[in-house]
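Sync notes, pocket subgroup
Present: LS, DG
LS reminded everyone that the earlier model was apo-only. Rerun requested with iron/sulfur cluster included. Inputs:
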Amino acid sequence: MSLVHNLSGEHNPFRRFTLFIFARFIEVPLLKLCFHILRGRYRRFGKMRWVRVLAGFLLARPFGYLGDTAKPMPYDEVLSLIDTLDGPIAVGACRCRIGHKSCSHPLETDIVIRTGYKAWMKAFPREYRQISKEEAKAIVKQTHELGMFHMIFVHCPVNLYNEYVICNCCTCGCVPYIINRELTQENYPLIDGYFMAQTDRSRCKACGKCIEVCPFSARQIVEGKSKTTGNCFGCGLCSYACPEKAITLRRLRDPILPRDEHGNAPPHHHAGLYHQHAPFKED
Ligand code: SF4
Ligand code: SF4
């Protein structure tokens, strides 16, 4: 296991090389193919049970557990994350949206950070441009105001320090989100367990707004009041949308992992294969 940890380390040359190869040659075609099988022009194949089983076991599982997945993060936490960054930041077109071209949400929202900055700037020097922290926060704010949610992607998630891009996501165009919803959390797991939505039921007026905006179908009206009944990923959309301020986000773990004074991950840490929590539900 220590070999896996060493190879997957944030600045390990092998991992950085695989990240560059992924950026340059694999990412966009793979996202495009997955989108068209699950929601686009080949979706009749994607509905076949054997295609789903094979795609789940042979592609989504190894990719999700060992290759690349994401943690949903509330808007305010994304702003805090940007503030903690030491290195340069760049922005380019969302890899999902330029791949399938089936979504009208803003395009220039792919904010690469840390080793992601180096890989994408090297792979696409004319398509990505360096931006300031203020510009990065303005992009996140714009997408937040459009009702989009945010996910921080982690490459080789055996090492949770390998955060490399801040994605601004929508339910119609974000391919990793669509894979998670279509092939289930078991097959392509998003990282959960940082926040959960908690409801002050005395304030809830049962307007249903939080249910409408939840990308993970995690809320329902129960006995005349809304509550979290499914697997909450702590994206925060319900809390921002509630007109009665009835929903708060309970912090379960710190989503911004502590780094040394140079912004580097600790040299010998063992994040382990990230564990899945039991679905968060309110009493
Ligand atoms: S948005 Fe707020 S008031 Fe409306 S159902 Fe949800 S918790 Fe209740
Ligand atoms: S209940 Fe849904 S919208 Fe609210 S934080 Fe959880 S996943 Fe996000």
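DG: The chain has two domains: 2-191, 192-253+266-277+279-283.
LS: The chain is about 40% helix and 15% strand.
Action: DG to write up.
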